[in-house]
Amino acid sequence: MTHPPKSGAQLLIDSLKEQGVEIIFGYPGGAIMPVYDVLPKSGLKHILGRHEQGCAMAAIGYARATGKTGTCLATSGPGATNLVTGIADAYLDSVPVVFITGQVPSDLMGTDAFQEVDIYGITLPVVKHSYIARDPADIPGMVEEAYYIASEGRPGPVLIDLPKDVANAVTTERHKWRSYPKVKPAMGSPEHIKICEEMIRSAKKPLFYIGGGIAQGDGVSELRDLVERTEIPVVSTLKGLGAMPSDHEHFLGMLGMHGLKAANFAVQEADLLIVAGARFDDRATGKLDTFAPHAKIIHMDIDIAEINKLRRADIWLEGSLKKNLAALNPGRSSADEWRALCYGRRAQYKWDYEAAQKNVKNGGVYAPKLLHDLTRRAPENAIITCDVGQHQMWTAQHCYFDDPKDHITSGGLGTMGFGVPAGLGAQLGCPDRTVITVSGDGSIMMNIQELATLNRYQIPLKIVLLDNGVLGMVRQWQEVFFDENYSEVDLYDNPDFAELARAFQIDAFTVTKRSEVDAGIDKLLAAKGPILMHVKISPNENVWPLVPPGRSNADMMER
Amino acid sequence: MTNLQADKTFERSGVSGKLKIVLHDVSGTLLRTLGTIERRGYDYRDVHCTQRVDGDFDLLVAIEDLGGPRNLDTLCKQLERLYNVVSAEKVGRRSRAEWA
Q1: What is the C-alpha to C-alpha distance for residues A182 and A77, in angstroms, rounded to an integer?
Q2: pLDDT bucket at A433, cuts 50 / 70 / 90
């Protein structure tokens, strides 16, 4: 059967539209020019970032905020390699994004041509799947499968590398795509669900340990329903935050390296861990063989390869987390003493902001209180993106979250420079919601150029920049674990960030004293366009508690 | 700091064995499969790949772990997670001593 003649580039754009793509984040260049030639008449919205890494992270922010698959476009060579950090970020945080890269013409591939790199080979370890388009007639089937793979099961990034000659070639053919969809169990068997229910009923110290899979598996309401029926306490990983409201009566907080004491103590004493959408990541478990030493494990995950990977499960439920959570009905747990112990500890170790604030000298700003106040004054459905470092952990510890999609953080890869582009992507995906990026003076410089993107499209992102003049988390570790041997962490020569933002035509102001914080938050939240609140904080303020690397979560250090 | 790092990360845990992996004949699948085995912490001792009459490939690999908490069941699941890998299973597992 023949079809209307179309170029590979046109087929690509048509296929993207068929997949429901609305926004493409991208940056043009030589090898991808045939696609950019077709783009203006396509009706697709293209957001021109100022660096391919920024485009990649904007696509991730868009995908994480909306639940849709993100799309990112770049050229060959350096354009493609600039995507790699973003692709890895999407892989480690299981984010559905389709990355499309231009490539040198097929006959030049393998000749070290100008702007040629083997991006297919470079990204093999960090993609869920990838393709090199060899024939324009393959493109419709390839794109359809790429979007399916990116979002099905455990989501992840998919790469399509498109040689320039394939993009230019015109064809009347459409090849039937040879697809091999994997058959996976929809959910755990009724027998296994019964066994799980019995284990939950008989446990004296049961505990939910939840992760990012709850949001990705669309299981938030099922989880909350199950927690309220069983009244079992809950701890969360960084990426699971928001699956339970931060102030929920059964929620103990984040576990792990910077977890809350009540959460870590509960894990260490539990006799049953009900693990939902979490993967025993080392930042959550600390020294693995000391993690939850008394607990039997029920493990629920969409990805069967995570079961028994690091901790042997006593029983597991494959398939949809949403269906498995909904199917479990063990009744209310009788572990009243356990509940009392957990909630008593939560009250005992509750953060005393006023007392902690007094330790900050000369009326300086105490960042945890600022973040606590910020999210409680922001609209209820505000989205917080953040960068990586101390402010990331303070955000996790002190901000209020009511939905896991409200907290967009680089959890797996820990990518500095993530916050601003992810924030702009989230804001474009959710134009009616307030989006706030919490960043640090180290992180923001890694993708500072995206302030130009904010200005170009007047994206009303609100940036809170916590500036302590050092690489804070590294400085903290050097203080605590390297005998205060501070090495290459001093950012004494930072620019004036408010002035810098204004140079990008972004409204900006600086807060230096505690007494200025309330008015600063008011101004930030009231802004109609993009705005940056530059907050000077002490370089000596650390993140507590802290579990030293390689130690048990029971060994929490404090101020 | 030294004492904190004094764990057994780099000691071989002695996991070794032979896997049979069935692959669809799709460009890049062999590279993706062999790369996954290496990246998940295993060295090759032997690799054989032959095409079957149905067009798929049988890949037989003998592998030995590089250290850390490894198990071959998890590796098989990680391989089966790859698109165009039909199946991965352990066959005729042998002890480390037999490789000597």
Answers
A1: 33
A2: very high
For B7, the closest chain A residue by CA position comes to A550
Cβ of A120 and B28 within 8 Å?
Answer: yes
Q: Can you give the pLDDT at residue B1? A: 38
Please indicate, yes or no, if residue A58 is contained in any of the structural domains: yes
- Rounded mean pLDDT of chain A? 96
CB proximity A183 to B under 8 Å: no
**Cβ within 8 Å, pair A124-B32:** yes
Stretch A425-439: mean pLDDT, rounded? 98
- In a shared domain, residues A342 and A359: no
pLDDT given for residue B16 in this prediction: 82
How many Å apart are CA A330 and CA A202, to the nearest integer? 10
Q: How many domains does chain A have?
A: 3
Closest among A557, A284, A542 to A390, alpha carbons compared:
A542
In chain A, residues with a C-beta closer than 8 Å to the C-beta of B24 are 180
Question: What are A293's two structure tokens?
Answer: 């030493």
Q: Are residues A306 and A343 in the same domain?
A: yes
Q: In chain B, where are the structural domains located?
A: 12-91
Q: Are residues A360 and A302 part of one domain?
A: no
Q: Does A558 map to a domain? A: no
A133 and A223 in a single domain? The answer is no
Which chain B positions have a beta carbon within 8 Å of A88's beta carbon? Answer: none
Q: Say if strands A234-236 and A6-7 run parallel, antiparallel, or are unpaired.
A: unpaired
Q: Are residues A197 and A330 in the same domain?
A: yes
What ipTM was estimated for this complex?
0.90
CA distances from A421 to A57, A169, A257, A433, A499 (A): 5, 34, 26, 16, 20
Q: Is residue A555 part of a domain?
A: no
Any chain B CB within 8 A of the CB of A456? no
Each residue of A85-136: pLDDT tens digit? 999 999 999 999 999 999 999 999 999 999 999 999 999 999 999 999 999 9
Separation between Cα atoms, residue A463 and residue A51, nearest integer Å: 19
- Selection from A469, A474, A446, A443 nearest residue A543 by Cα: A474
**One-letter amino acid for residue A72 of the chain:** C
Whether A156 is covered by a domain: the verdict is yes
Mean pLDDT to the nearest integer, A344-355: 95
**A385 in the same domain as A360:** yes
What does the angle CA A201 – CA A333 – CA A252 come to, to the nearest 5 degrees? 125
Same domain, A104 and A196: no
- In this prediction, residue A112 carries a pLDDT of 95
- Residue A326: CATH number of its domain: 3.40.50.1220
pTM exceeds 0.90, yes or no: yes
Residue A147 has pLDDT above 90, yes or no: yes
Domain B12-91 has CATH 2.40.110.10: no
- Give the CATH number, domain containing residue A397: 3.40.50.970
pLDDT above 70 for A298: yes
Q: Which residue in chain B is spatially nearest to A547 when comparing CA positions? A: B4
Mean pLDDT of A60-65: 98
Name the residue facing B83 among A121, A180, A550 (closest C-beta). A180
At residue A555, the pLDDT reads: 92
Nearest CA in chain A to B76: A305
> CA-nearest residue of chain A to B5?
A550
Judge: B86–A180 Cβ closer than 8 Å, yes or no. Answer: yes
CA angle A440, A442, A446 (to 5 degrees): 105
Mean pLDDT across A437-456: 98
Residues of B contacting chain A (CB within 8 angstroms): 1, 4-5, 7, 24, 26-28, 31-32, 35, 39, 69, 71, 73-74, 77-78, 80-84, 86
In this prediction, residue A82 carries a pLDDT of 98
Residues of A in contact with B82 (CB under 8 A): 129
Last residue of a domain, one of A297, A327, A348: A348
Give catalytic residue positions of A.
52, 114-115, 164, 473
Q: Are residues A60 and A156 in the same domain?
A: yes
The strand pair at A45-48 and A70-74 is best described as unpaired
The crossing angle, in degrees rounded to 10, of helices A390-398 and A472-481 is: 100
Domain enclosing residue A253, as ranges:
190-348
